[in-house]
């Protein structure tokens, strides 16, 4: 490795882009893999866990890493694309070492690991050399004192702990996008995953669940107490919640629907009433719906909502009352590009596209795909036989249902040189 810093704190590496020699990004750093030989000897760094395009995780040996600096990691470009599988003799620094309870030898100082540092030894191997720990807060101090100690001065970093918390790991996960956090949670050992799930707030857990494979969703939901599981389902988008509940045992599904708030449960039940792989089953019931007297300024204020996906923000739907699906009659839709070109005081009704044919809830997934492709749309309304708006199908909804169940595990086609 050339021109690398003498010491690197691992938590600061997470999320850094990984580049090949031509300067093309091939992935991101997600964890560090080490070999622990004993409590006192410095663990040898074996390599990085990298997330490449398609959210696939691979192993990058340190021998393939040519440079690390403040903002990126460089490799030789020759990467083995086999999915990373942790061996029994390997430890993940972020996934397993953070939050371990440790003691500084010869003192009364105890604390929680919040970072570790690695350095190159004389033989050019990278080893873990420092432990950053934080003491518990006392009295009015909400945060305890922090220390950075030599590896040999600290006991407990390499021991498995039955009651290991997840505070520091949660801090890293909360900095990630939900899809990235979901991938990390998917790869955690079962005990660490349980600790993380227990401490995530309901809204964040809902965001992460929406990005996990179905088997992980079911496993996590069954791990939760029934009341909390219902609360998390309420935080999910109704279409994702409906898909998840449909994968549960009928008696469990019925119990959770009973525990949910009536309004949320009603939306989920309505979506579950449609046949699978139809517009009705995959639509969202939370598009941007406006009355006929709404102005363009009103519409733009709604689509600025950061919780809206790009595809949901691309169209607004003008309807007669009531404005909750199923609404009154759909008058038309307005494209965001059109709204941006008109004076804010203009009524949205003056900028409507009334030529767009809506979808019917029983249309097949292939018919929906053909409709979006034909008219170059990222979203389209779904109406009933009376012209009432039931919801909207977005292109991301469509992709979720069209891609194979194991699409995250498939080999990326671009961006990485195969070795």
From TrEMBL:
Q: Which organism is it from?
A: Nocardioides daedukensis
Protein name according to UniProt:
Flagellar motility protein MotE (MotC chaperone)/sporulation protein YlmC with PRC-barrel domain
Annotated PANTHER family: MAGNESIUM TRANSPORTER MGTE
Q: Which domain of life is it from?
A: Bacteria
CBS domain span: 352-410
Molecular function GO terms recorded: magnesium ion transmembrane transporter activity
Keyword Ribosomal protein assigned? no
- Annotated keywords: CBS domain, Cell projection, Cilium, Flagellum
């Amino acid at each position: 490795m050339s021109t690398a810093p003498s010491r690197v704190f691992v938590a600061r590496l997470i999320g850094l882009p990984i580049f090949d020699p031509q300067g093309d990004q091939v992935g991101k750093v997600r964890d560090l893999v080490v070999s622990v030989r004993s409590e006192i000897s410095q663990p040898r760094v074996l390599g990085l866990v990298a997330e490449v395009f398609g959210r696939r995780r691979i192993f990058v040996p340190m021998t393939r890493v040519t440079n690390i600096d403040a903002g990126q990691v460089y490799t030789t470009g020759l990467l083995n694309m086999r999915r990373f599988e942790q061996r029994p003799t390997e430890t993940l620094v972020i996934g397993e070492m953070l939050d371990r309870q440790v003691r500084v030898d010869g003192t009364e100082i105890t604390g929680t690991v919040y970072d570790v540092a690695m350095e190159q030894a004389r033989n050019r191997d990278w080893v873990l050399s420092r432990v950053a720990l934080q003491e518990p807060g006392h009295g009015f101090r909400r945060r305890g004192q922090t220390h950075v100690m030599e590896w040999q001065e600290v006991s407990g970093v390499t021991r498995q702990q039955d009651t290991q918390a997840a505070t520091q790991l949660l801090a890293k996960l909360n900095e990630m996008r939900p899809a990235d956090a979901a991938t990390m949670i998917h790869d955690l050992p079962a005990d660490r995953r349980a600790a993380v799930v227990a401490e995530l707030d309901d809204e964040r857990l809902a965001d992460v669940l929406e990005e996990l494979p179905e088997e992980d969703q079911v496993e996590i939901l069954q791990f939760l107490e029934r009341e909390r599981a219902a609360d998390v389902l309420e935080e999910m988008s109704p279409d994702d919640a409906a898909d998840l509940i449909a994968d549960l045992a009928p008696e469990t599904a019925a119990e959770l629907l009973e525990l949910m708030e009536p309004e949320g449960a009603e939306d989920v039940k309505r979506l579950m009433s449609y046949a699978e792989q139809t517009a009705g089953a995959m639509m969202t019931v939370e598009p941007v719906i406006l009355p006929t007297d709404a102005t363009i300024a009103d519409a733009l204020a709604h689509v600025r909502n950061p919780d809206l996906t790009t595809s949901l923000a691309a169209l607004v739907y003008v309807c007669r009352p009531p404005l909750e699906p199923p609404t009154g009659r759909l008058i038309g839709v307005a494209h965001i590009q059109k709204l941006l070109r008109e004076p804010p005081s203009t009524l949205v009704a003056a900028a409507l596209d009334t030529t767009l044919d809506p979808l019917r809830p029983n249309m097949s997934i292939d018919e929906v795909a053909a409709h979006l492709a034909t008219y170059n749309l990222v979203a389209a309304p779904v109406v009933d036989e009376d012209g009432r708006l039931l919801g909207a199908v977005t292109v991301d909804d469509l992709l979720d249902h069209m891609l194979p169940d194991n699409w995250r595990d498939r080999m990326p086609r671009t961006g990485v040189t195969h070795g």
